[in-house]
């Protein structure tokens, strides 16, 4: 289910999407870009984690780069920049991120 | 989390609210009235049940009558009218419905 108001303006820590399949519950913050990098302020990731803790969901950052599938990173795999915010490079994401099937539990492929 | 577009217009079976607390997940269709009766079309209840099955949530109809607290009925406790839709009387609701604490699992009081 998509959140009613996306973006950082809301005071409540709502993720962009909440999803469930009867076994797994996901809270997803979504970013798309035509560039090779995605920047995110740390309050958005903090809010994603806070909501997930309260609701009982696994938090993910969902990313769509040009020519890639949707890719998903757990907050602990998102690299901080010096100023405390987050930057995700497309190459890092292609190497480390999970695909939709994997975060839904349909595929437990381990990435090396 | 509130759904982005409430009401029966959407094709997707989204409830008005999805809530979780790490243990219990709820899908809630919400109705308020200043009258003593609430009418609901059966496709809205069908959609609530369908979403709940897919997502993995317990479905409830959440009702607010004038001078009452929020009251919650499970779909199986909602009475059908002759035409297949649903009608909930305030008195029936006060007798049979659960309160917020009860559907959140904070209180397991049995009603007689």
Automatic annotation (TrEMBL), chains A, B:
One BP term from GO: DNA repair
Keyword terms: DNA damage, DNA recombination, DNA repair, DNA-binding, Endonuclease, Hydrolase, Magnesium, Metal-binding, Nuclease
Gene3D superfamilies given in the database record: 3.40.1350.10
Keyword Hydrolase: yes
Reactions it catalyzes: Endonucleolytic cleavage at a junction such as a reciprocal single-stranded crossover between two homologous DNA duplexes (Holliday junction)
Name of one Pfam family that matches: Hjc
Cofactor: Mg(2+)
UniProt entry tagged with the keyword Nuclease: yes
Superkingdom of the source species: Archaea
Gene Ontology MF, one: metal ion binding
Alphabetical list of PANTHER family matching this protein: HOLLIDAY JUNCTION RESOLVASE HJC
NCBIfam families in UniProt: Hol_resolv_Hjc (NF040854)
Name under which the protein is recorded: Archaeal Holliday junction resolvase Hjc
